[in-house]
Structures are given as C-alpha cells and as structure tokens.
TrEMBL record:
Protein name per Swiss-Prot or TrEMBL: Thioredoxin domain-containing protein
GO molecular function, one term: prostaglandin F synthase activity
Pfam family, one: AhpC-TSA_2
GO biological process: prostaglandin biosynthetic process
InterPro entries, sorted: PXL2A/B/C, Thioredoxin-like_sf
C-alpha cells in the first residue's frame, strides 16, 4: 500500500511539473501573440527549434512519459486511474485536464482571429473529378507540367498531399506506402507526392527522405483547395495531438527541422486521394490532423 502511495505521489509530482511548464508556455504565447501582427507571431514564434514556443509542450510531454516509465499517453492514463485514490494525484490530474481546455481554447482563438474557421474544415464540396489542366511544377527539374501527365495511361494515381516539408507524420506515411509497393503495383496505383512548398524546400526534402516517388509542386494550392483542405492551428497543435507527438520523441523519432531560408506553412493539412486514369476520384481522405492518415490497407480496399 505504501509503495502504491509513493508511486501516486511521484505521478502527481511529474504531472504538476508538466502542467507548470505548459502554463508557462501558454502564458508566453498569449503575451507574444498580442505584440505586433498575429501573422508574424505565428510565423516567427511557433517553431520546433524554439524551446519556449507552444511546440515546447512536445518535449515536456516526453519528459512526463519518461518520468512515469511509459511510452504512450494511454499507458500514463492507466497508471493515473490505478492510483486515483490519492488526493494529490487527483488535484494534479484536474490541473492537467484544465490546462488542456485552456490550451485548445487559445488555439481556437487564433484560428478565429486568422479567419481559418470561416469555412468549416472538410465540409466544402469536394470535386468528383480533377481537371487534367491543373498546372503543377516538377520538383526535380523545375519544369512546368499539368496533372494530365499522370492521366490517360490506364493506371490509378494516388495523390499524397503533404503538409510542411518538416512533417514527420507525412514522412512516416510515405515510408508505409513504400513498404506496400508490391500491393500498390498489383492494383496499378502510381503514387505522386504533392507539396504546396517551394522547389528549394522540395529538393532538400527529397534529399533527406530519399523518396523515390514523383513529386510535384502546387504553389497556388489548387489541388488542396479542390479537396477542401484547410489550415488550422487547433487541428495541428491541440493538446491531445501534442501528447501524441511526444510519444514519437519517446520512441527516439526526431522531428525534422525546416530550412531557415524558406517559409513553410505548418498548419496546412494534407490528404490522400486516388484518381482513375480520367481524373475521377475513387478514394478520398481529408486529414483531420497531422496524425490522421489512412492505412494503406484501407486505400487498397477502396479500389
């Protein structure tokens, strides 16, 4: 019994430390967001390399899990439930939950101020067929092309619309697709990676990832818009997501850092879309968060 009580107090101490850290990050963000243009705050102050930015909650979450000897949030939840009779832990969990509410409310405020919520994400009418005339850029050569390059060849085309170049989850998803090459080939599916970013960033991304798929650039986000993909701080940085990102840190997966010489959009969401050789949409998945990518098996089942 004494051992369980000691464990509960240890968990409470770890939670309290995490909450204090999270509150400090949130208070700093609220202060900085009121200084100058909000767009400048978003662009300059929310960066993975800045320990005191909102993204600092990710390593804080990793430290929380490590101090509890767990690797995932669900495992931490289970430990808290087992020891919840401890009043000190109860108070710490309540503070933790309250921080989550405050955190998400601030992000919702930012979305509203930036008018990112003017149109409800995922509710816009999606196209049922993409035009072959959509202009794109070949990431490797810099040459112009149209979507029609990939149509009319008797193959299906899986368009993987990525987020920012430094999105870890996008890279993991593409590795999963590469691991299922035989199954995709058997269904005559060609994978094409689509980015809204610049060519410098694309070349750096290709060199870092070693990705063998064709990559095209959609600088005006015509493909993104056609599928109703929007940007949202809350959908990317909400409290639950930050703790899920922390799981990747605990698993020793490093979040890539963007090139300092380019501007990227951390809050653009992605998706996976399969077209037939006439451009008709056979499968559509609009990501509701960076973590929300379809399983390759689900893509194949839809075909």
């Amino acid at each position: 019994m004494a051992e369980k009580e000691t464990d509960a107090k240890t968990y409470a101490k770890a939670l309290t430390s995490f909450v204090e850290n999270g509150k400090a990050l949130l208070e700093l963000a609220e202060q900085e967001s009121k200084e100058g243009l909000l767009q400048d705050y978003i662009r300059k102050k929310i960066r993975i390399e800045l320990d005191q930015s909102l993204l600092g909650l990710i390593p804080a979450g990793a430290r929380l899990f490590t101090s509890m000897s767990v690797k995932k949030k669900k495992d931490a939840d289970e430990l808290w439930k087992r020891s919840y009779q401890c009043a000190e832990l109860q108070d710490a969990v309540e503070d933790f939950l309250q921080l989550g509410v405050q955190w998400d409310s601030f992000l919702e405020y930012l979305d509203k101020e930036l008018h990112l919520g003017d149109r409800i994400f995922g509710q816009e009418p999606q196209v049922k067929c993409l035009s072959p005339d959509i202009p794109l850029i070949d990431a490797q050569t810099g040459g112009t092309l149209t979507l029609g390059k990939y149509l009319g060849r008797g193959e299906k085309v899986l368009l993987v619309l990525i987020r920012q170049f430094s999105c870890l989850l996008c890279r993991i998803h593409l590795k999963d697709l590469e691991a299922h090459k035989i199954a995709l080939d058997a269904c005559s599916v060609q994978v094409v990676v689509v980015s809204f970013g610049c060519r410098e960033g694309a070349l750096h991304w290709l060199a870092e990832t070693g990705c063998q798929y064709d990559m095209v650039l959609d600088p005006h986000r015509k493909v993104y818009s056609a599928f109703g993909l929007r940007a949202s701080l809350k959908k990317v940085l909400n409290f639950n997501n930050m703790l899920l990102y922390a799981e990747y840190v605990v698993a020793n997966l490093e979040f890539p850092k963007g090139l300092p010489s380019i501007e990227d959009d951390m809050f653009q969401l992605g998706g996976d879309f399969v077209l037939d050789d006439q451009g008709r949409v056979l499968f559509s998945h609009c990501c509701d968060s960076p973590i929300d990518r379809p399983a390759v098996e689900d893509i194949l089942k839809a075909l």
